[in-house]
Design a protein that fits this description.
The protein is an alpha/beta fold. It has six helices and 13 strands. The chain has helices at about 10-20, 30-35, 50-55, 60-70, 80, 185-195, and strands at about 1-5, 25-30, 40, 75, 85-90, 95, 100-105, 115-120, 135-140, 145, 155-160, 165-170, 175. The strands form three sheets. It has a seven-stranded mixed beta sheet, with helices on both faces. Strands 6-5-7-10 form a four-stranded mixed beta sheet, covered by helices on one side. The longest helix is centred in the C-terminal third of the chain and has 12 residues, at about 185-195. It starts with a strand and ends with a helix.
């Protein structure tokens, strides 16, 4: 399994979580090396625009699109999930995303931001990521999210204060989560195993 290294943080904890789930993990920005892997994980922390700039700097956007065309397993985590959407709006700026999911990522309409802590997720009908995980809590840390579900795929939702937002999307071989499964204890480990299988 490949973990795309484009300068974003949190690579080591993500790599450790996937190794603990039994995966052989390669952390790299080298396309040839990543293309030899069975699956690709795109992590992300920080700002949408900064993550997109890092991904584009290593040609990760082209790699991800080629990966999707080849119908190979792909997982985005946190801002890695957000950049799969068409666009991100932060601090008055609009940044084009990779466009795997339709929709826009914007600030969560809540009083207390960032949204940081453990939340339940309402799995979409037919979710494979959340198999055996109904009612479990996952670790979130974010101020931005997609609030409107994409038109296609199995969409799982969560809530912060009165705001609902997209917690995960599964469409074909593409999956993504707003929360951090690698920081979500036993529930996150189960979700990672579900994705790997």
């Amino acid at each position: 399994m490949g973990l795309l290294d484009y300068g974003s943080g949190n690579l080591h904890s993500a790599a450790r979580a996937f190794r603990n789930a039994g995966a052989e993990v390669v952390v790299s920005a080298d396309h040839d090396e990543l293309l030899r892997q069975d699956g690709l994980v795109v992590p992300g922390v920080g700002a949408f625009a900064a993550c997109m700039a890092g991904i584009e700097r290593v040609g990760g956007d082209d790699l991800i699109r080629a990966w999707v065309l080849a119908e190979r397993p792909l997982l985005g985590i946190c801002v890695g999930h957000q950049v799969f959407f068409a666009e991100g709006h932060e601090h008055g700026h609009r940044t084009r995303g990779i466009g795997l999911h339709d929709g826009v990522v914007g600030q969560v309409p809540a009083r207390r931001l960032p949204h940081m802590g453990w939340n339940t997720v309402e799995p979409g009908a037919g979710s494979r990521l959340f198999d055996g995980l109904a009612g479990e809590r996952f670790y979130f840390v974010h101020s931005y999210a997609a609030q409107t579900p994409p038109m296609e795929g199995v969409v799982s939702m969560s809530r912060h204060e009165e705001a609902t937002f997209v917690a995960a999307v599964e469409r074909g071989h593409v999956s993504s989560t707003q929360f951090h499964p690698e920081k979500s204890g036993a529930a996150g480990a189960r979700l990672i195993s579900n994705w790997l299988s």
